[in-house]
Known about the structure:
Layout: E1 2-8, E2 11-18, E3 29-35, H1 45-55, E4 59-63, H2 81-96, E5 101-111, H3 114-124, E6 128-134, H4 141-148, H5 151-171, E7 176-177, E8 180-181, E9 189-190, H6 192-203, E10 211-212, H7 215-219, H8 225-228, E11 235-239, H9 246-255, E12 261-265, H10 273-276, H11 278-296
Parallel strand pairs: 3-4, 3-5, 5-6, 6-11, 8-9, 11-12
Antiparallel strand pairs: 1-2, 2-4, 7-10
Amino acid sequence: MKKVTFKSAxxxxxxxxYLPANYEEGEKYPAVPILGPMTYAKEQAPTEYAKRFAERGxxxxxxxxxxxxxxxxxxxxxxxxxAKVEDAKAAAKYLAALSMVNNQQIVGFAVCxxxxxxxxxxxxxxxxxxxxxxxxxxxDREGDIQWMGTEEALEERIAEGKVALNTFKQTGxxxxxxxxxxxxxxVGMPGKFVWDWYHTWADQGIWTNNYPKMSDAMxxxxxxxxxxxxxxxxxxxxxxxxxxxxxxxxxxxxxxxATNKKLQWEGETGHLQYYDDPEILDRTANQAIEWYNAIFx
Length: 297
């Protein structure tokens, strides 16, 4: 692994580039940029998958999106899905320019909410030749209502995000709340389930528990269903009954027009097992590599 930098919309992004275990100078390899869950840092699930892809002969890039981790951009920790779409495209462009990368074998990979963003990036950018998404948080109005609990709760959160965005535009003040909290409902990702996982990363200083409230004005205007409707490239969706919003995943998969697509449904595998369970990580990486290799013949 080596630390690398590349530009997206003029901002410097920082990533960890993993070279294939069988790397030889002068050879060209397939490559995969990776997007992680909402508010992710590159050291979390993206690194776990990048290591496994490299072990199996791929160049893999785990990177911090703009506003987070070691990458540039302000306000810090802003959650902007469309910015992540552009960052994923920039990552693919960076990989395509590397001498060891076969630029006809660049494929997208994403976990949780990164799946909705990578889905759009792959559908819009011809550098990508295929896609695998894992335990995806796919975005449409119906799913957002289910996520927030009620339509009223969703509208309240959108309204509060717009107020915070207007405050920032008028005064420069950033209204921040925690990204996760055990009891508060006005945070980025409410609930003990996500708190239990994320706060340990904050305790280690790897991940910042912060969420600019104006993110909600951007987060909830984003959807991935129209991107799914345009995806004509080979696509493997890996999901389970215990992954987030399984009905939304099925809606998005059904909307994809690509003839070469597969839904790998995995019964009771827990959502967070796809983040850090070694057995599930190994299995999922193997499934992704098998799919990618089949694309390239």
